[in-house]
Specification:
Strand content: 35-45%
Number of helices: 3
Distance between the termini: 29 Å
CATH superfamily: Gcn5-related N-acetyltransferase (GNAT)
CATH topology: Aminopeptidase
Shape: globular
Oligomer: single chain
Structural class: alpha+beta
CATH architecture: 3-Layer(aba) Sandwich
Order of helices and strands: EHEEEHEHEE
């Protein structure tokens, strides 16, 4: 059985480390804003196993005129569970949350290998590729919320 639910920031740290920051200490998996009252974290479960995570932060989108924008961060799905729709479920939860908060757009600094996922989910992609130190090349992806 697949389910999603809002979880605490600390519940995301182990998957953040395992998938997004291997060989880094767990402290580098704790982000500024994780515990802000506006921030939300979502977990996707296969049965009782946490297989995917996504966090959403109220943050301005650079270079775009979008008040009350929301940033997606730390999307991760266990490699053996990819391609089963878990990432789309997490994305839908984050988008719905941002809409409930009055958000007009949602965005992410997407790893290059994840850009296609966001495009399939209806996100626009900026052409510029930029590097996030110790993480790698990224592109800005964004979507208007209705």
């Amino acid at each position: 059985m697949i389910s999603t639910k809002e979880i605490e920031a600390a519940e995301t740290y182990s998957l953040r480390q395992e998938i997004l920051r291997p060989q880094k200490p767990i402290e580098q998996c704790q982000f500024s804003g994780d515990c802000d009252s506006s921030t939300a974290h979502f977990g996707v479960y296969s049965g009782k196993e946490l297989v995917g995570i996504l966090s959403v932060f109220n943050a301005p989108i650079k270079g775009k005129n979008c008040p009350n924008s929301w940033q997606l961060r730390a999307m991760a799905v266990k490699p053996q569970q990819r391609g089963k729709g878990y990432g789309l479920l997490a994305l839908a939860e984050a988008e719905a949350y941002a809409i409930r908060q009055g958000g007009c757009c949602i965005w992410a600094n997407a790893r290059i290998n994840a850009v296609g996922f966001y495009q399939r989910a209806g996100y626009c992609v900026d052409d510029e590729v930029f590097n996030i130190p110790d993480v790698g090349p990224h592109q800005l992806v964004y979507k208007a919320l209705t």
